[in-house]
Amino acid sequence: MKGDTAKARLSARKLSLELEALAKRYDDAKPMRLGPAIDPGLAAWRKERGVG
């Protein structure tokens, strides 16, 4: 019984970390999809990160 609880906790933690990584990737990619007409800070963002 205790082993199952530990496995479930570990599994939940692993999923949480994967979700955090996906959310960060989405946030990092968002300005690229918006385009310069919608996001006036796009050029500065790209320059800061060395993208395109």
From TrEMBL:
Protein name per its UniProtKB record: Uncharacterized protein
Organism annotation: marine sediment metagenome
Organismal lineage: unclassified sequences, metagenomes, ecological metagenomes
